[in-house]
Amino acid sequence: MSEFDKTQYLKGIHVLVVDDDALTVKLIHETLSIFGFGSVTCISDPQEAVDLVEEKRFGFIITDWRMGEFDGGEWVRQIRANRNSPNRLVPIILITGRGTLQEVKMARDAGVTEFILKPFSVKVLREKIIEIVEHPRNFIISRNYTGPDRRRKKQDVEHERRSKDDV
Amino acid sequence: MSDDTHFPMPQKDKAVVLPPDHSLKEQVGTLVPMSYILDEDVVKDAENSAQSILEAERENYLFHAAEEVGVLGALYHQLHAGQGDKAQHLKDMEMMCLLLKSRAGLFGFDLAEKFATSLYSLVRMQVDLDETVLLLLESHVRCLEIIFDHQVTNSETKVAENLLHEFELISEKIRRL
């Protein structure tokens, strides 16, 4: 009897990877393929990615922060702010060599769902993917921030957020 | 949540909170935990594959790392001599450090990663380039040169780790000035 192929569960999910470093792209692409993701689109030109995410919805997106002069964090902010973007709610994983507390906060405030510090690790990528699939967060739309809830509460929120006028 | 969900505009001082989007989980299958799909065997296969890719790239990496360290050295000399655009040199140093630290850990150069990270933090502090700071920059660059000249990986680094610890203490003192 043949062994059941567990990775078939992921075949229908389309992933976008944006990074101008060929080695990182190769590692991520290979890892996602072995994990079982059916379709992995890899783009090294960030402008091409900007156009693509306006047209097509992905399961999730992995992007580098800085690609030349291109600011991946700012791009995430724009996706989150765009009411017409098919990827507005889609989980976005930012991968970067920048890991100071200030930089992590900047990424979080841009609307990133998860943050991975380079060097690349299969185990860390696995953890982040499990997190975005199993524990999606509320999505906040406000004047100052649009993106996944920056709190990582595991329990349900009983009440709607109240403004100061309601108190 | 479907793509055509209407996004309500937040009113002044109010935030709109949309419930979690479970569509990704629904695509996978709600009865199947991801940890079951991405089990130890799958992770092992992926790690082995990544290792093969890295082994094939190792020579290329060492060549480029030596170049990057060379650029760091040249930038340090420019800063020390007060030549060129100081702000640009520091920005270039920052980029070289990011490149070095992003890849060093992948290829087992854990100590190089630590020194590149320490140098990155130092360069970003934007302190005045007095003799102490220049000496610190020089020491970081020199250590990186030694690491790549001799291909020092973490297993051979007790002395160098102690040295890094001293560097971090000095960097902290400068940060507090």
What does this structure look like?
The complex is a heterodimer of chains A (167) and B (177). In chain A, the strands form three sheets. In chain A, strands 2-1-3-6-7 form a five-stranded parallel sheet, sandwiched between helices. The relative contact order of chain A is 0.13. Chain A contains five helices and nine strands; from the N terminus they run βαβαβββαβαβαββ. Chain A has helices at residues 22-35, 46-55, 72-81, 101-110, 122-134; strands spanning 14-18, 39-43, 60-64, 66-67, 70-71, 92-96, 114-117, 139-141, 146-148. In chain A, helix 3 packs parallel to helix 4. Chain A is globular and about 50 Å long. Chain A has 167 residues and is of the alpha/beta class. Chain B has 177 residues and is mostly helical. In chain B, helix 5 (110-124) packs antiparallel against helix 6 (131-149) and helix 6 runs antiparallel to helix 7 (158-176). The chains are: A alpha/beta (167), B mainly alpha (177). At the A-B interface, helix 1, helix 5 and strand 8 of A face strand 1, helix 1, helix 2, helix 3 and helix 4 of B.
SSE pattern of chain B: EHHHHHHH
Mean of pLDDT of chain B: 84
Question: What form of chain B results from the Cα inertia axes?
Answer: extended
How big is the Rg of chain B? 23 Å
List the helices and strands and how they pair.
The complex is a heterodimer of chains A (167) and B (177).
Chain A: E1 14-18, H1 22-35, E2 39-43, H2 46-55, E3 60-64, E4 66-67, E5 70-71, H3 72-81, E6 92-96, H4 101-110, E7 114-117, H5 122-134, E8 139-141, E9 146-148
Parallel strand pairs in A: 1-2, 1-3, 3-6, 6-7
Antiparallel strand pairs in A: 4-5, 8-9
Helix pairs in contact in A: 3-4
Chain B: E1 16-18, H1 23-28, H2 34-37, H3 40-81, H4 86-104, H5 110-124, H6 131-149, H7 158-176
Helix pairs in contact in B: 3-4, 3-6, 4-5, 5-6, 5-7, 6-7
